[in-house]
Structure formats: C-alpha cells, structure tokens
Recover the amino acids of this structure.
C-alpha cells in the first residue's frame, strides 16, 4: 500500500514539530519526555517513510523479497561463521556496492555505524595488554616506552585483530539487514518471510501489527505531548514514574479496544480464521540471478585465509 | 538486551533456533486454543503494545532514563504463551525494520525476552500473588516482583550466552571469535546493571501499570481462559509429576555408576582433585572445610562404605526430604505474603 505524497508530507511535518519546538521541553524536568517523544517520532517517520525508499528505482528494490531474504541471509550467515577478518571486510564492501546500486542514502544505514561503534566500545579493553596479554603493537604508557623496555600498557597485535574482526562482523551483518529492510517495505518484506517457512498466520499478524503500530505510535506521542504541555515546574520523580505507568495502562486499554474493533471488522467482512493472503507469484530470472550471486558471494568470502 | 549479529557464534544461535522452533509451534497451538478467532487482532495489538512499552522512558535517580521490556506485563494481561508470540513478533519487527537485534541472534533474543522473561516473571507473579484480590496491594507487588525477577532471569541468560562465547568459539591461536569476555566478566557486569537499575524500572512499570488497569479497567486484566492458575485436575498432575521425578532420582546415581562416569565438571571433591592435579589447591583445601553439610553427598557420614542399594535408598530419601522442604517453604512464603496483603 502506497500512501499519497500530500498525506506523508503532512504527517511528517506534524511528527517533527513535537519534540523540538515545545517550549516546556527546555525545562530539565521534562528533558526525558522530550527524548522519548523524539524516539517515538523517529519510529513513526521511519514506519511511514520506509515504503518511500522501497518504491524508488534501484537494484534491491526490483528484486522479489523472497529472493532478497534468502540471498542476503546467506551472506549474513556466512559472515557469522567465518573465522577470518577478510569475510566481514568483503561483506562490508558488498553491502556498500548494493547500497550504491540501490541508491540508499548513507543516513539510512547510520544504525549500522552506531552498532559498530558500540561493538568497538565493548571490545576496546581486549586490545590493551592490561586486560589481555599479547605482542605489543603500540606503546601507550609510559609514553615512548618501546624497544628495550616492555611498556606497562600497550595495544596488542592479537587484541587489535580480535577487535577488528568483531567490529567488522557486526557492521557487515547490521548493514546487510538494514539494506533488506529499507529496500523492501514492511508488507513486501513480511511476505518474503514465507520463503523462510514462517507460517502464513504469523505473516498476517505481523502485517496487521505494523499497520496499527503507526496509529498507536501516534497515540503514545500524543500522551507524551500532553504531559509536556501540562508540566509546569518540578513535579518530582515519583509523579513521573506514576505517569509512565498510567500511560502504559492507558495505551493497553486503547490497544484492547482497537483489537476488539478490528476483530469485529474482520468478522463483518467474513473472516472465519482462515488467512486469505494472496499467494506470491513465481520468481523471475533476475531474482534467481540475484540469489545465485549472493550465494556465490557467501561462498567466496569464505575463501581468503 | 537485544543481542546484535556477530556477538554469538553458530553453536549458540543455532542451538537457540533448535530450542525456539518447537516453542513457537507449541505457543501457536496454545494461543489458537485460548484466543481462537480473536488470535490475529489480539496478538497483533499485543505485539504493538509490547513494542510501545519499550518506548516509554522512565526517569531514574542520577539523571538517566531506562525503559521496560514489558514482556511480563503482556504475560499477565494476555497469558504467557500469547506473550511468547507477541514479544517474538516485536523482536522480528525490531530486527528487520529498525536494525535493533540481529537476524542470526533472533532466536537467542526470543529465548531470553520472549520465553524466559515472560514465563519466569509470570510464575513469580502467580507465586507471590496467588489468591490476591484484584486491586489489592499484594497483586501489584506481585506484578512488580514478576517484572523484576523476569527481567533479571532474561539478563542472566543473555550474560551466560555472552560469557560462553570464548569457551565455545576461538581460533587456532585461542583468540575469541565472538563476544570476547568470559563468564567472570560478562555475568557480573550484565547482572549488576539489571539488578540495580533496569530491574527496578521493569518492576515499577509492570506493578504500577497493572495497578492502574485493575483500578480503571478490571475486566481487561482477567487472564485468558486456559492460562489461569491450575485447577484441581492440573494440581493433581503437578503432584503426580513431582512424584515421578522423585521416584526417578536414583537414576542420578545409577547411570554414572553403570557408565563409570566421574563427578560433574567443576564439582570435584578434594580427593578427585588430588588424583587429577597431584595436589589440592591451598585456598580450596582451607575453604572446603568452612561448612560441613549434615547429610553430605545425600547420605549420612557413616554410610560411606555401604552397598549401592543403601546409597540408592538414601538418595531417594534425600529427594523426598528436599522436595518436602522446598514445597513447605513455598507454602509458608505464600501464607506469609497473604497475611501481609490482608494487613495492607
């Protein structure tokens, strides 16, 4: 389903106004509310926008989601089992080429960079001789203690190798997963999951969940916005926590009402518990070609030792 | 707690998929039996709700914020099997659409957050809140305890997965291939932040959200049919199961005796260590004498040289006594909590 441009533009505008331009948001007491609202707003925008990028021309956009799921998952699996540093490095290059050919802007792949940086932070101690002994590569403390004297703290060759392999693997897998998501659109992507033997009913539930998630995200944003608008001065942490709990409760009430209404709507349209989701057609030659290329890449990245 | 791709080796994430496939199948059957036609919309909304709970930040003293996972709350409201499916769907959407959590580690994330967390939390809720009146203080305290225990159980499982990686997967030079820190680092770091910080956030959100719903919409907090506390028939089955397990306990002695196996890994006594290492480490020798168990190795001290049949009898008796003690302690705790709830 493609939403009209005028609708997307108006929704994007209203979603972006909230976190940044609320006067009360400057108060430190509501800073956390602003952060939550910004996060809700980001998810809302992403849910609306992801169909946009998937509809643009590009290599991955024209491939059937079933072929994409099977092809890219094979590369991810191959990277995850490879013991060398070359496999994730080659997979990163492959992901870069696919992103360029699919015209995916770098900003859409930013979460992969965040994941890699976080992995780097986690693995940092392993590179230091203080935590894991190894052959010194670069003396860190005392400065200039190289050669005759063993430095107290140094970067080790083994540690840097382990860290590099770990960071590259996380970056490669996350980038490939993001490419899969951004170039497919949720509805097509979920239908593609049928290729991985995900039951039809689960795919239908997922589809329904994502459709209503946008509405519920909006409801959650409104709850936060209302709270920010009504907060004057310091209300105390206890009241904040109570508000979160009542907010979660209120949202549950809304989801149950919506579930009941949706169910009644489905019954009214003749739902009997059987999924009538349309069967996907056969794969085209280009889908088979893409899948073969990805499987060949998955094997090829295992070769360098 | 979302484990990304690259942190777990194929031995771990492969095993998680093997464990999760039958759980998903069983959960689908259970849920379709209890929710029937309503399954699709209720599950879809439950999953959307679970997704949104994670977006509510809670301010924590010290200027930072944390968010709840909400799996225990969903388990209390929709039943634990529905929570398995709802949270699994959320994790799939997060992994595929938002890049939060990996594709290879998806089943491992589901095992932690969609199975261990809702089930442990739900059992803790039922244990503490059994018989509590809707809207009572004990009921929301039970929900808070469920949230706290459930989240920490999931964190413990995730930290064990991380900590096992250097043991399970390393290259020829012994360097770790995946998450590089062993159990001694991964478990304390992960558990400290969850025991002190995120567990408290989960407890507050779970407890207070249930209290709010109990007060405002009591009909919405009714457990679905088939997910409520076991009736007399269910209780009888539980007792029979416990009895069968007690009767089978001598196998724990018989099988190692037949196969000639030694003690479990890491459970060696001083004599076994002396046989393996040639000496008993000094610290171990000193600390091993700190506490003398009244019934060491499930038999009284004098039964050391007795025949296998005497050992088996003592083993069976120990199983009976141990089970009676645990069941008694649980009943005592329930009575105490019930009395506390009535007083409150």
């Amino acid at each position: 389903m493609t939403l009209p441009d005028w609708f997307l533009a108006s929704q994007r505008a209203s979603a972006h106004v909230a976190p940044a331009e609320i006067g009360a948001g400057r108060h430190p007491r509501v800073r956390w509310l602003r952060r939550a609202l910004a996060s809700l707003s980001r998810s809302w925008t992403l849910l609306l926008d992801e169909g946009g990028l998937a509809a643009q021309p590009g290599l991955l956009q024209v491939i059937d989601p079933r072929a994409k799921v099977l092809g890219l998952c094979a590369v991810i699996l191959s990277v995850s089992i490879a013991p060398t540093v070359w496999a994730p490095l080659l997979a990163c290059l492959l992901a870069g080429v696919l992103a360029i050919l699919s015209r995916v802007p770098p900003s859409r792949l930013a979460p992969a960079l965040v994941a890699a940086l976080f992995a780097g932070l986690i693995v940092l101690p392993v590179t230091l001789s203080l935590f894991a002994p190894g052959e010194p590569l670069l003396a860190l403390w005392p400065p200039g203690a190289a050669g005759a004297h063993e430095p107290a703290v140094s970067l080790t060759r083994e540690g840097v190798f382990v860290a590099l392999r770990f960071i590259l693997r996380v970056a490669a897998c996350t980038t490939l997963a993001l490419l899969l998501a951004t170039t497919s659109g949720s509805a097509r992507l979920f239908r593609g999951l049928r290729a991985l033997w995900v039951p039809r009913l689960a795919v239908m539930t997922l589809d329904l969940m994502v459709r209503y998630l946008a509405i519920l995200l909006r409801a959650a944003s409104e709850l936060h916005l209302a709270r920010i608008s009504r907060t004057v001065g310091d209300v105390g942490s206890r009241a904040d926590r109570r508000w979160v709990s009542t907010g979660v409760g209120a949202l549950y009430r809304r989801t149950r009402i919506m579930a009941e209404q949706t169910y009644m709507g489905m019954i009214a349209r003749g739902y009997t518990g059987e999924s009538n989701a349309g069967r996907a057609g056969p794969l085209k030659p280009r889908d088979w070609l893409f899948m073969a290329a990805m499987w060949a890449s998955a094997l090829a990245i295992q070769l360098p030792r | 707690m979302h484990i990304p791709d690259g942190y777990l080796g194929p031995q771990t994430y492969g095993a998680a998929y093997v464990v999760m496939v039958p759980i998903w199948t069983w959960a689908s059957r259970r849920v379709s039996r209890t929710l029937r036609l309503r399954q699709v919309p209720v599950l879809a909304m439950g999953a959307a709700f679970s997704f949104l709970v994670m977006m509510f930040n809670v301010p924590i003293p010290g200027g930072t914020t944390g968010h709840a996972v909400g799996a225990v709350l969903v388990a209390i409201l929709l039943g634990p099997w529905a929570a398995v499916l709802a949270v699994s769907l959320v994790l799939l959407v997060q992994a595929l659409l938002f890049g939060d959590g990996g594709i290879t580690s998806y089943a491992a994330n589901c095992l932690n957050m969609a199975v261990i967390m809702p089930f442990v939390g739900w059992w803790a809720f039922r244990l503490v809140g059994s018989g509590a009146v809707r809207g009572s203080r004990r009921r929301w305290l039970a929900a808070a305890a469920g949230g706290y225990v459930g989240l920490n159980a999931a964190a413990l499982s995730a930290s064990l997965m991380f900590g096992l990686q250097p043991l399970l997967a390393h290259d020829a030079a012994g360097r770790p291939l995946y998450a590089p820190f062993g159990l001694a680092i991964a478990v304390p770091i992960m558990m400290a932040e969850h025991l002190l910080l995120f567990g408290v956030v989960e407890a507050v959100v779970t407890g207070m959200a249930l209290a709010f719903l109990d007060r405002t919409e009591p009909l919405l907090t009714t457990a679905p049919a088939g997910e409520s506390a076991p009736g007399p028939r269910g209780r009888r089955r539980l007792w029979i199961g416990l009895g069968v397990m007690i009767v089978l306990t001598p196998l724990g002695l018989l099988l190692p005796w037949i196969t000639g196996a030694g003690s479990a890994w890491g459970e060696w006594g001083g004599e076994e260590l002396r046989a393996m290492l040639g000496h008993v480490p000094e610290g171990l020798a000193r600390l091993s004498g700190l506490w003398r168990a009244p019934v060491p190795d499930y038999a009284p001290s004098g039964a050391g040289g007795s025949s296998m049949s005497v050992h088996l009898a003592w083993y069976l008796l120990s199983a009976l006594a141990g089970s009676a003690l645990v069941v008694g302690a649980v009943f005592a705790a329930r009575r105490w909590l019930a009395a506390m709830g009535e007083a409150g």
